[in-house]
Amino acid sequence: MSTNLRPAAVAGMFYPDTPVVLSREVTALLVDAPRHADHPPKAIIAPHAGYVYSGPIAASAFATLAGLRNTIRRVILLGPTHRVAVRGLALPTSDAFATPLGVVPIDKQAVDAVSDLPQVVFSDAAHAHEHSLEVEIPFLQVVLEDFSLLPLAVGDASPGEVAEVLERLWGGRETLIVISSDLSHYLPYHDAQHIDTRTAHQIVGFDPMINHYQACGATPINGLLLAARKRGLQARQLDLRNSGDTAGDRSRVVGYGAFGFFEPAAGEQRHVH
């Protein structure tokens, strides 16, 4: 049976297109990432720029999944659309997504679970050249053993509409939620630090009023904040840097943050804001 495959669109641009080089680079980023979590998260926020710029910050989020290698079987991946305007949250019609590290199947049960919602649409155009979802997949392929994917390209939608989709797909320990977003764009270094610090405070404080000047993935972030707050999760900043800290000059930088959302540990109080 032939597979309707969404091929890698930005391999060789945002990240290496040779399997051995890509695997080596992602592994090295994960090894170098700081360890901030004593237990693994239910959801993470990670940036999506080229690995030379945002890879170390993304690794700070994905490194927290090390203990879930054989537990996570389904990843719900949401990121903003950069090239194609879409109303709602767009699913692809493809059966799998490919990267140089292999093929990840689309979770058809998850598709069926949300496809009746009015804000969920199908748009292969929204996915065809979109990097915000694709660049996260090699990290997942290195960190996790065997998983299926539900990729949602988020366009014009409300935080409540995003939260409703996440509620349908929340699942248990087998399900991970990944939100792909960069933070401020093309500001001078210290201006970006100021804006991004404020955004980080909003994220860990579950304030779902982040705007697109603060984060290109503001809509999926805000939706996650609504859903995670309702579930009593705890948020933690794992990393906060910008391209001036990694590989770019400091006159025009892009901000990157990594965040984890955790179920309260045994014995801890659940705080629902």
Structure notes:
- Strand 5 and strand 6 form a beta hairpin.
- The chain is globular, with a radius of gyration of 17 Å.
- With 273 residues, it is of the alpha/beta class.
- The protein has 10 helices and 12 strands.
- Strands 2, 3, 4, 7, 8, 9, 10, 11 and 12 form a 9-stranded mixed beta sheet that branches. A 3-stranded mixed beta sheet has the order 1-5-6.
- The longest helix has 16 residues.
Strand content: 15-25%
* Structural class designation: alpha/beta
Low-confidence stretches: none
Q: What's the SSE pattern?
A: EHEHEEEEHEHHHEHEEHHEHE
Head-to-tail CA distance between termini: 49 Å
Q: What is the residue-mean pLDDT, rounded to a whole number?
A: 95
Strand runs, count: 12
How many distinct helices?
Answer: 10
Largest sheet: 9 strands, mixed
Helix content: 25-40%
What gyration radius follows from the Cα positions, in whole Å?
17 Å
Shape: globular
